[in-house]
Amino acid sequence: MSTSDHEVAIIGGGIVGCAVAYELARRGVPPILFEAEPGLGLGASGTNSGILHTGFDSYPGELETRLILRSHELRRETADTLRVPTLPCGAMLRPRDDRERATVREIAQRARANGVPVHARADGALEIPGEAVTDPVAFVHTLAGAAQGGGAELRLRAQVESLRRDHAGGWTLHAADGTQARARYVLNCAGLYADAVARLAGDEIVDIYPRKGEFLVFALASAYRPRQILLPVPSAMGKGVLVFPTLDGHVIAGPTAREREDKEDWSVEPDAVAQIIERAAPMHPPLRDASPVAAYVGLRPAGRGANYVITPSPASPSLIHVAAIRSTGLSASLGIAEYVTGLCAQAGLALGPPLELAPHAVTLTPVPPPSPAWWERAIGHHGA
Fold first, then answer.
1. What is the pLDDT of residue 217?
2. Rounded CA gap, 238 and 224, in Å?
3. If you average pLDDT over residues 59-79, what whole number do you get?
4. Both 272 and 228 in a single domain?
5. Domain final residue pick, 270, 287, 302
6. Of 250, 172, 185, whose CA–CA distance to 218 is shortest?
7. What pTM did the predictor assign?
8. Which of 42, 53, 148, 308 could disulfide-link to 37, CB 3.0 to 4.6 Å?
9. CA distance 35 to 117
């Protein structure tokens, strides 16, 4: 079996893996990327809300916050250069009682500490003009296409089954599609399975479990669609269900947050519709009497007692784990890519100056059929 040689191998073709591939390609180091599924972004990256957060409500100083804020800065340039589809609709956080008004004031303070513009209204509501919505699958493919245009190699149906150090200090990878590759650096961006990939190298970094989030899709007449992202005031129970418009003219409400163990359970549970409508209708009353046209599930890669575990392997700084990127991976992806690339540079990877990569249609084998709406793709793949 022949073995190809690469400077960098990436495991995982979701938003984080493709963002890292894009960042490396624009720095003159096109990687080889291995994706276990038959398409890119078929896990959490293609089954989320598609909301691009500004980091307004994140806790100042945390790594997650820093990377969301940095990604928001980088996204302005990237969205223009690569023509990422985006709906800059802004968001609204509307309190219902004194407790929620106090929480909103605290969130406004965090936003200002993070440097995110917000507007506190006289009625206690908080407007966040920088929040936006994208097509998450298109975002993944846009980054992958630009990376491929810059020389990156993309391998589908290529689950990495073996990862071992070689005598030269690099890594040898064996994949399910028969590919064997050597790389000086390996980046583990495997989402729900980042813990399993880490174990291939003998590392126990964090235990990943699926946090199931269900979403409902509605077809409302134009007059009844929200013009902004409607955010619930968070509580001790979590951030809650939100309501938002999509680029294709639908309205989505969700997600739920269910702690689960089965990483292959993409089912919509029987009480999901009632749970979501009960929480969404007070924010957007037209949903109270509406019937969803579809439902889909996202499985967020949550870490037990950990979040945003981005760290070199204890065995070697040339293996970097990017794990437990729980629910803000889409929003933070460009910042994560820059951060991970910086860790590679610290480990000795030579990077060139950043180049401007042109938009490039991703080429995959086999060629996928014309894509439906991203949420329809999620349903079709996972059978929700």
1. 98
2. 27
3. 95
4. yes
5. 302
6. 250
7. 0.96
8. 42
9. 38
Res. 369: pLDDT tops 70: no
What is the predicted pLDDT for the residue at 236? 65
Does 258 lie in the same domain as 186? no
Q: How many CB atoms lie within 10 A of CB 312?
A: 16
Please tell me whether residues 161 and 193 are part of one structural domain: yes
Look at residue 115 and tell me whether its pLDDT is greater than 90.
yes
The reply to whether 15 falls in a domain is yes
Residues 315 and 292: their CA atoms lie apart, in Å, by 50
DSSP for residue 174: E
For the chain, give the mean pLDDT.
94
Residue 129: inside a domain: no
As for how many domains the chain has, the answer is 2
Asked if 199 and 217 sit in the same domain, the reply is no
Q: In the structure, what pLDDT confidence band is assigned to residue 80 with cuts at 50, 70 and 90?
A: confident
Q: At residue 331, does pLDDT exceed 80?
A: yes
Q: Which long-range contacts (CB under 8 A, 24 or more apart) does 164-169 make?
A: 164/200, 164/201, 165/201, 165/315, 165/316, 169/316, 169/318
Cα 221 versus chain centre, distance: 29
DSSP 144: H
Q: In whole angstroms, give the CA distance from residue 165 to residue 184.
A: 10
pLDDT above 60 for 279: yes
Domain final residue, candidates 252, 277, 302 = 302
What does the H/E/C string look like for 155-173?
ECCCCEEEEEECCCCCEEE
Closest by alpha carbon to 130, among 321, 305, 331? 331
- Domain of 247 in residue numbering reads as 209-302
* Amino acid code (one letter) for 162: S
Cβ–Cβ < 8 Å for 112, 118: yes
